[in-house]
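Consider the following assembly input.
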Amino acid sequence: EVQLVESGGGLVQPGGSLRLACEASGFTFSSHHMSWVRQAPGKGLEWVATIEPDGSDTSYVDSVKGRFTVSRDNAKNSLYLQMDSLRAEDTAVFFCVRVIVLAGTGPHFDYWGQGTLVTVSS
Amino acid sequence: DIVVTQSPLSLPVTPGEPASISCKSSQSLLYSNGYNYLDWYLQKPGQSPQLLIYLASNRASGVPDRFSGSGSGTDFTLKISRVEAEDVGVYYCMQGLQGPITFGQGTRLEIK
């Protein structure tokens, strides 16, 4: 059974840092792109970042470029999101998401974690 | 960035009746391989989103056949042939053709 379990959320002051982690199980982690998607309270979904299976390439939404860093440790089946210079508008539930290829195409998000809440407030 | 716009934003439906959600993109999502890079997701109350439809018209594994997707280019539709109580939640379309990946605003389906 595929499981994605996020941790590391919490309350942080504006300008502060936080590191999210996602522990994956039930599939070959090192074979999949992985993504972070966030959802502000009462709002819709926003893609944040994606990392390639071997970690060699990453991509980000413009609003977090230069502040967030996605990484992974395939030996530990873990995905991370280092978040620096946090702003109030970063307040959201952050989901760890598995990316799959279907019909030779992607990305498609087939498994989502339960999410971890990040609150940026003084 | 490709903007994806859904309508309606709220959809009250009587059980057993059909429902339809529209998704329009600011650029064509049809790639040279013949596929439209448009997916549909459902976020049930208190849950994480789940994949319903990929590449505009393909049901994901385990998705009931009352759900169907159609459309090409910039106009797409998600249809539920007969709404059931378990279908309540927020439906999102998502384009994966070009970075950044973008989602529609979401359509909240509720039971009348």
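Residues 2 and 37 of chain B are 12 Å apart (CA to CA). Ask yourself how this observation constrains the way the partners meet.
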